[in-house]
Amino acid sequence: MNKFYLFISATVLVLSTGCTSTTALNHFERDPLSANAIQYTKKADLLYKTEIKAMVFVTYLNDVDKKYESNKINSFLIGVHLVNKENNNSKSNDYTITLNGHESENITALDKDSKLVKSIPLKNIWADYYLINFKNDDSQSLKIEFTHSLYGHTQLTFQK
């Protein structure tokens, strides 16, 4: 008799949980940009002597929002958090960011409360955020390289 009750309980449990309509993207209903951005966002750490010296968050915007679709420009939202407090200065020239070895066309510093920064799924409250545009070189592989003058470099790769 106990096996019968166990079987009935298991069947009811399976049937009641199998009828839900929740998907992973249901949690992003308020912001469709965030739902698309999760696929095109990456994070990298810049290590120096086994210590994290910088964290870089990159979202490739061309595939995220129609506003950034372009055959001439590749647009990225980049967050940079330098772990060393003395060097964490957004105005500092201690680091460079390149795409496939080329420097940016233009860099715009973004406020942390901007709609664009708020819409990305992976962020750090201590990071400084930038909208960075690079000239499109028709490459299918986009290699963002973050280089710090003291700590070396790290790289993230996106596919168009």
Helix content: 10-25%
CATH class bucket = Mainly Beta
The ordered string of helix (H) and strand (E) elements is HHEEEEEHEEE
Strand-residue fraction? Answer: 35-45%
Q: How would the global form be characterised? A: elongated
Mean pLDDT: 80
Beta strands, count: 8
**Spatial strand arrangement across the major sheet:** 1-2-3-6-5
Q: How many domain units?
A: 1
Span of the ends, CA to CA: 60 Å
User: What's the total helix number?
Assistant: 3
Low-confidence stretches at least 5 residues in length (pLDDT < 50)?
87-91
- By helix and strand content, what is the structural category? alpha+beta
Main sheet summary: 5 strands, antiparallel
Chart the SSEs and their pairings.
Layout: H1 2-18, H2 32-37, E1 41-48, E2 51-60, E3 73-82, E4 95-99, E5 106-110, H3 115-119, E6 128-135, E7 141-148, E8 152-159
Antiparallel strand pairs: 1-2, 2-3, 3-6, 4-7, 5-6, 7-8
Structural features, described:
18% of the residues lie in helices and 39% in strands. The chain is an alpha+beta fold and 160 residues long. It has one domain: Sandwich (Immunoglobulin-like), CATH 2.60.40. The chain has a five-stranded antiparallel sheet, with no helix packed on it. The protein has a three-stranded antiparallel sheet with strand order 4-7-8, with no helix packed on it. It is elongated. 21% of the residues are buried.
